[in-house]
Amino acid sequence: MSTNKEENRIQHVDASNQTFENFIVSETNTQAFNACVEFAKGKGALPNPLVLCGPSPCGKTHLLNAIESYIQNREPSVKVSVVRFDDFISLYVECLHKKNLSAFEERY
């Protein structure tokens, strides 16, 4: 697996309009919305990395883009990485097999 830092990043066509302000909160995504806002604000004891899972279309990508936008607008020096779960796990397993977890830790 390549170590290119942008390789696993989700490619956005134009995510600038995907913010918390225009996210449609519903009964099925209220908990995810609240968790993402708290995560973006750096409040609470939320896990890092934050993992979102659920059926289509419940707003996972919109929420991830909203987190990235929120953080980048407030702290441009902070690096945000949106990674597909299967890519994240593949790299972890590869590093385990090579007995080189430091490469995984360095990346994430």
What does this protein look like?
The model is unreliable at 5-13 (pLDDT under 50). This protein has helices at residues 30-41, 60-74, 85-97, 101-107. The protein is globular. Helix 1 packs parallel to helix 2 (60-74) and helix 3 (85-97) packs antiparallel against helix 4. The protein contains four helices and no strands. With 108 residues, it is mainly alpha-helical. The longest helix is centred in the middle third of the chain and has 15 residues, at 60-74.
Feature tags:
108 residues, mainly alpha, 4 helices
**Helix/strand structural class:** mainly alpha
The residue fraction in helices comes out at 40-55%
State the shape.
globular
What's the total count of β strands?
0
Reported for the largest beta sheet, the result is: none
Strand proportion, as a percent range, falls in: under 5%
What string, H for helix and E for strand, traces the elements in order?
Answer: HHHH
Mean pLDDT: 82
Distance from first to last alpha carbon: 15 Å
The number of helices is 4
Q: Which runs of at least 5 residues are low in confidence (pLDDT < 50)?
A: 5-13
- Determine Rg (CA atoms, Å): 15 Å
